[in-house]
Amino acid sequence: xxxxxxxxxxxxxxxxxxxxxxxxxxxxxxxxxxxxxxxxxxxxxxxxxxxxxxxxxxxxxxxxxxxxxxxxxxxxxxxxxxxxxxxxxxxxxxxxxxxxxxxxxxxxxxxxxxxxxxxxxxxxxxxxxxxxxxxxxxxxxxxxxxxxxxxxxxxxxxxxxxxxxxxxxxxxxxxxxxxxxxx
Length: 183
Hints:
Blueprint: H1 2-16, H2 21-24, E1 36-40, E2 46-51, E3 55-61, E4 64-70, E5 81-87, H3 95-107, E6 111-120, E7 123-134, E8 137-147, E9 153-161, H4 166-177, E10 181-182
Antiparallel strand pairs: 1-2, 2-10, 3-4, 4-5, 5-9, 6-7, 7-8, 8-9
């Protein structure tokens, strides 16, 4: 009887671990967000659940449709800047692409701390996290590319200024990004 109990307990523990690959980057243990509203982009390509009190802006042009949001009730060094865009262009995670993302960070005087392929929204994805200084503040940016198909991808950027609760702010953003829904 004891072996069956251990197997059931193990299955329960494994099933309770709902952290996504994205959240595992920082070993996130964030609580479920509440008081969220669903925001749909102008072209109705995707939606994301965001806190109701965040200031949100929509943008589109011939190459993309975007949702940009932040908690403007907090200081810059205590908030999250989240920009999610549906890009009408292909993306391939080859060596040239990886070099280009590395050089973009380097050009902006940022040191890349993480660069890896993973799966987000059940799609092939690539993330970079880089840090440096911007506007005289410690600064970190996470740039996530989610390949949707051969002609489109999602670009999700999270910017964090300051050095207070950086991990927690990234974890909150990652939990929101994991809730993106494609139309």
